[in-house]
Amino acid sequence: MGNEYVQDGMPRAASGRDGTQAASSRGLLDTPGASGYAVAKLDVSGLSGASGDVTLQAVIRDVEAVIGRATDSGARLGAGRILVEGQRMFLNALVKTNERAIGALVDADIEAESSTLRALQAQRDLATHALNIANAAPQAILILFRL
What we know:
mainly alpha, two-stranded antiparallel ribbon, 5% strand, rod-shaped
């Protein structure tokens, strides 16, 4: 099973060797910031007075920090997407190159076999002519004796 670890102050789920994933207990919006409030459960209606202003400023800093982390995560996702797209394009080019190379090898093999077949047919034809000549010579001598 996967283990939880902390990255950028946030618990993340790590995949195990078996492909399963441990459930993360908190995300960006569920994690309490320095103010003690989680953005997802934020209710500022009860804040009042000077202490409310201080708490509200801390909550605003927490929200800005969450926005910054979300922006960073989006940038990492975008960079990862670009990397994956580049690898996909490389693999497509590699597959096309391999297909062309295999086609050229097959064509070359067919041409070699065709040349071999033509050579064997020429040998057969020459052997047939040689046998015809060899069989004709005794016939010619027999004709001479009959005259």
